[in-house]
Design a protein that fits this description.
2 helices; single chain; disordered C terminus; seven-stranded antiparallel sheet; mainly beta; disordered N terminus
């Protein structure tokens, strides 16, 4: 990829860090960057052309490649949380993925200014001993010319028997301060989940219905919103910006912040770092996905940033509109 523009070249470069783990560095033609670790296919960084980091990563994150890093976007498969027989969040986030040069997907329709990489995970013999199903997990990561970050997933059953799975993209967004809920005009809010049903993981997974207000944070939160709309937004008044999250094939949304007490008990999170992060995950977990032999599931996550200099850049219960119209179809970008 070598389309030069605005002083930058579109690149997908392989880097090897000091711990021996390979990363893929994506750069679009405007200078925006995304960095993906092949261990777990984890997106560890998403930066604007001026170098502003949009994902949160803990300063105490464990980087020795034996566990998933506390931050970025972590791929949870074939199990989310502890809802099954496997370790928490499944094994995909702890396996080394390979760069897929098989051209099993055609290149994106519009490659101008866009950097992308295709990754592939297949089960090892060890994986088959703990989860005895053969699959192919194809993941395409695209950094568009407008800085939008897109994750496309294809999971195919290549076994002779059906299997079921749950999945999520555990995503840490960088925010100003989640404790600003008492300060009008500087709070962090989540829009798009009003009146939706949710399971509260802090209250024995009891089912509740949201009462119609945007979500703000006053204490620890761990909720699974089920069968949700396809767009959710994080509005950060403190930074005068927001994130839009569009999703397909991922009906559920997990909202999580550990707050002070739980954060203190986490070895890979600083005591005060919960203030500067919020997790909003696209997920399919309330109703497991079942694939018969030869069947394939597809999912999509589309992240983009919205900026504003206005003191209030959205109306209550009204999601912001991106300056650049987002892709509406999975087929448009593969």
């Amino acid at each position: 990829m070598d389309s030069p523009a605005a002083g930058h070249r579109v690149t997908a470069q392989i880097l090897t860090l000091n711990n021996g783990v390979e990363h893929v560095l994506l750069q679009n033609n405007q200078g925006a960057i995304a960095r993906v670790c092949l261990k777990g296919a984890q997106v560890l960084s998403w930066k604007t052309p001026d170098g502003e980091e949009l994902f949160f990563t803990s300063r105490k994150a464990i980087l020795n490649s034996t566990v998933a890093v506390r931050g970025g976007v972590s791929v949870c498969f074939p199990q989310y949380e502890r809802r099954g027989i496997l370790d928490r969040h499944g094994f995909a986030r702890n396996r080394t993925w390979i760069i897929d040069d098989s051209q099993s997907w055609p290149p994106p329709n519009d490659t101008i200014g866009r950097a992308y990489v295709d990754l592939l995970l297949k089960p090892s013999e060890m994986d088959l001993r703990i989860w005895p199903y053969r699959f192919e997990y194809h993941l395409r990561l695209c950094l568009n010319s407008d800085g939008h970050l897109i994750l496309l997933s294809r999971i195919r059953n290549v076994d002779h028997k059906p299997f079921s799975f749950t999945t999520a993209f555990h995503t840490y967004f960088s925010i100003s301060n989640i404790r600003n809920y008492k300060s009008a005009g500087s709070e962090v809010r989540i829009e798009g989940l009003e009146y939706q049903n949710y399971l509260d993981n802090l209250l024995a997974k009891v089912l509740f219905t949201d009462q119609g207000n945007a979500i703000t944070f006053e204490s620890e939160m761990d909720r699974i919103y089920v069968r949700t709309p396809d767009m959710v937004a994080i509005l950060d008044h403190g930074k005068r910006r927001g994130f839009c999250i569009e999703k397909q094939g991922l009906p559920d949304v997990v909202v999580w912040n550990p707050w002070k007490k739980t954060a203190k008990g986490m070895a890979d999170l600083g005591n005060d770092e919960y203030e500067r992060m919020v997790c909003v995950d696209g997920a399919a977990m309330k109703d497991p996905i079942t694939l018969k032999p030869g069947e394939e599931w597809r999912g999509k996550l589309h992240y983009y940033l919205i900026q504003s200099t206005e003191p209030q850049f959205y109306n209550a219960n009204e999601l912001p509109v991106a300056d650049v119209a987002p892709h509406s179809s999975l087929q448009q970008i593969i």
